[in-house]
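We now fix the convention by which a protein and its fold are recorded. Think of the row as the fold of the chain written in a discrete alphabet. Here is one such record, which you should read through line by line.
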Amino acid sequence: GDGVGNNADAFPNDATETRDTDGDGIGDNSDAYPTDPDNGVVPHCGAATVSSGKLTLEKEECIAGGKGSYYVWVEADNTDLYITTAGGEGDANIYFNADTWASSTNAQAKSELSGNSESLHVVANRGWRYISADTSSDYSGVTVKVSLIDPSTTPVEPPVEPEVPSTLADMCATESPQDYGSIGNAAPVCVKNGRASFYINVPVGTVSLTAETGHGMGELELYTGESWPDATQNTGKSANPGTMEKVVVQQPTSGWYYISVQSTPSSEDVTLKVTLN
């Protein structure tokens, strides 16, 4: 009863959830990490990608062993370096020395916490600088990274582009919403909330079919197909934030063609238009 059809609903028996973006079995509404299937936990990174030698700034590497000795190039004096490890098994500690191969005895900075969530912040001058991962026992599947960015800071979100006003006529201002039926060429209709399905006859020789939505509020997805389309079976799909969606099908098959609009329960007053050229 959440307005999303069972075929498109990741949780058809749960009225509070409809999506599981990261596929971890937790609905997006209650998932603290909706795009991370590991829910914030760094997993075992697998086979080691480096055993010793050069590390590259901002590149994650997978390490294992007893002791591993590494070096990284610093481009400018007074550079902030953030050295971190995470995930895997065992208990790897990290050590830093600006002048020579680092060890637990000559380290100018070190992190020796229990487990593999180690973090060091050092200020280094231009040149090769040295890092080691060491422990009294073996470790494996540990992710190591040297970065210029403080991992404790919140990433700056990119600016949100202003939404361009829809060029469609606002049919919901004058018509009742529809959820099924035939739609005419270039004849916009007001779409009912939830799942709405329409069909149009495509003449032989049609170059393109364009389906587009606009106006109203909420979130929706737009599908086209040679049979009733959905999120997995379609000839075109549009799932942008908001209600402005557009699908263009080149050289559509003649005969009946199908268009579906799948919206969230809170959507309303959306216009759909299908144009044949």
